[in-house]
């Protein structure tokens, strides 16, 4: 899964099951031990770790592989896609909130991980379901009802309407968080640049570019000074509030 979702996966597994789960963390030697440790039922790692640790991951036996945000393998020429598809397991599940049916090449790439025989060879698949001109440019699609029937045994789709009754009421909370002194200093510096530009009687194309950049810097500084100057540790009242 993406790095940002690892902790959420750990929390949800604990919430809905009685199975143990482990986050893959630490240096290379530590990660090797974690992949082969049989103490946890689930092992949670992110896509970047898979690329770095593929040899170790392939050497372990997996009964089930779950890909969250599965659109990460929609491009079959990407390194991530090719690496992930080299993994072997008895069962595989791909989760995605992004519809894939609009691009048959992306759909084919994702289904290939689930069942590499389901849609057959790529050339035959595209000849069957894609309409192209003499130069190979895609003009449209065909035989989509047949394609839906082929996907039905492996595809489970839930729309917003289907799951709305199971979702809790939406809660909106607005918090006003004062900026740090470092953020205010950086914001004020960009504000002075903006004021100097807008006071000009005539704005050149270069002035407009500088104005856009200064406005962007103000927005970034409101989140963290690190986004502007890349100087650690970075100051952010929003992150402090989240901690």
Explain how this protein is built.
- This protein has 243 residues and is mostly helical.
- It folds into 2 domains: 118 residues, 3-Layer(aba) Sandwich (Rossmann fold), CATH 3.40.50.10810; 62 residues.
- The protein is 48% helix and 9% strand.
- The strands form 3 sheets. A two-stranded parallel sheet has the order 1-2.
- It is extended, with a radius of gyration of 24 Å.
- 10% of the residues are buried.
Q: Which outline best applies?
A: extended
Major sheet strand order:
1-2
| Percentage of residues assigned to helices | 40-55%
Could you give a short account of the major beta sheet? 2 strands, parallel
Q: Let me know the average pLDDT.
A: 90
Number of helices: 13
Give the low-confidence spans: none
| Assigned CATH superfamily of the largest domain | Tandem AAA-ATPase domain
Our count of domains comes out at 2
Give the helices and strands as they follow along the chain. HEHEHHEHEHHEEHHHHHH
Beginning-to-end CA distance, first to last residue: 23 Å
Question: What is the CATH fold-level name of the largest domain?
Answer: Rossmann fold
Query: What is the second-level CATH architecture of the largest domain?
Result: 3-Layer(aba) Sandwich
The portion of residues forming beta strands comes to: 5-15%
Structural class, by secondary structure, is: mainly alpha
What's the CATH first level of the largest domain? Alpha Beta
How many strand units?
A: 6
Radius of gyration: 24 Å
């Amino acid at each position: 899964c993406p790095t940002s979702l690892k902790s959420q996966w750990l929390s949800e597994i604990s919430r809905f099951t009685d199975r143990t789960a482990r986050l893959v963390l630490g240096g290379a030697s530590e990660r090797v031990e974690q992949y082969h440790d049989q103490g946890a039922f689930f092992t949670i790692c992110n896509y970047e770790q898979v690329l770095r640790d593929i040899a170790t991951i392939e050497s372990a036996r997996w009964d089930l592989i779950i890909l969250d945000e599965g659109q990460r393998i929609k491009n079959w020429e990407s390194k991530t896609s090719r690496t992930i598809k080299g993994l072997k397991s008895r069962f595989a599940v791909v989760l995605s909130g992004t519809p894939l049916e609009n691009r048959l090449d992306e759909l084919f790439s994702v289904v290939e991980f689930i069942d590499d025989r389901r849609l057959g060879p790529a050339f035959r698949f595209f000849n069957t379901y894609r309409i192209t001109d003499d130069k190979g440019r895609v003009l449209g699609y065909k035989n989509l009802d047949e394609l839906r029937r082929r996907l039905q045994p492996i595809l489970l789709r839930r729309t917003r309407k289907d799951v709305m009754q199971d979702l809790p009421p939406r809660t909106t909370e607005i918090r006003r968080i004062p900026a740090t002194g470092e953020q205010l200093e950086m914001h004020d510096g960009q504000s002075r640049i903006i004021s100097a530009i807008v006071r000009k009687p005539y704005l050149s194309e270069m002035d407009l570019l500088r104005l856009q950049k200064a406005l962007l810097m103000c927005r970034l500084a409101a989140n963290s000074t690190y986004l502007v100057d890349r100087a650690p540790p970075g100051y952010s009242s929003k992150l402090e509030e989240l901690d």
